[in-house]
Write a structure and sequence with these properties.
The protein is an alpha/beta fold. The chain contains 10 helices and 13 strands. It has a domain of about 80 residues: Alpha-Beta Plaits (2-Layer Sandwich). The protein is globular and about 70 Å long.
Length: about 325
Amino acid sequence: MTSTSSPTTPHIEVRGLRRTYGTGAEAFEAVRGIDLVVDAGTVVALLGTNGAGKTSALEVVEGLAPASGGEVRVLGLDPVADRALVRRRTGVLLQVSGFPADLTVAETLRMWAATMTAPRPVEEGMAQLDLVDRADVRVRSLSGGELRRLDLACALLGDPEVVLLDEPTTGLDPESRRRVWDLVRNLRDRGRSVLLTTHHLEEAEALADRVAIMHAGRIVREGTPAELSAGHPSTVRFAGVGALAGLAHLPGATRVATDRGTTTVETSDLQTTLTALLVHAADHGVRLDRLEARSASLESVFLAIAAGDHDDESGVGDAGAATTLEGVTR
């Protein structure tokens, strides 16, 4: 394969991808025929319930493993057969790094730069991830968040056209996480493409142009965050159980539940239900402590998928009822 991408070629194109571990009776199909497209200048987030196959799929896109079936193209090339050509134009962040513990931050980046065709200055890479003050610190002495920032600095040192990030903000404090979000947005604004996996639903909502949700090896939902959350309930929560009667009859309310001192009202019309709730509380002289109103979000979609509430021709939907969720944050 010698072809390269044109301005109209997707940066990443996955068609019917399958990945199987083992053979014969012991074979396990972790990825079961997924399609995914990432265009230039876009961010796509790949989410999923535990064991959904996200990392197994990403490793094929990264060129770290061959596909068992289907086809993957990165910049118009096969990421395995054309690895030498693809690698110089991509930046890859794995879940776990393997840097020598005795090297300093600066030495690690210089070592990494030596493997690249046209790296950016090491000092620029450190500044981008706020590592200048840690330049002479050995890897073994870095905190988990600092090590993750070093991983990212290496992934971006070659100014890649395609960036593949496997849980990029794991271990980062809120300030560092926001800085990484700004970096991802800047990559998109400069026409780069980003495919990332994440445990944080708010991260996908904040960054992604499109979200693909995997379950049991398949993509069961795909679209913009707004498209995915459409049709799912918004919620109103407040402290107190039984403080008000008749909540189930609030306009727009579809479900009322109480749990550990918190009342949750699900609604198909957040503004109408919230307005009626406030009027109802005022009429009864009740204060709604810790009142929280949230529009439908990816959390709603995840909860529905975990409960088996999704279209799945394979019939695996019911099996998802006991699946734990990666990324449901409250």
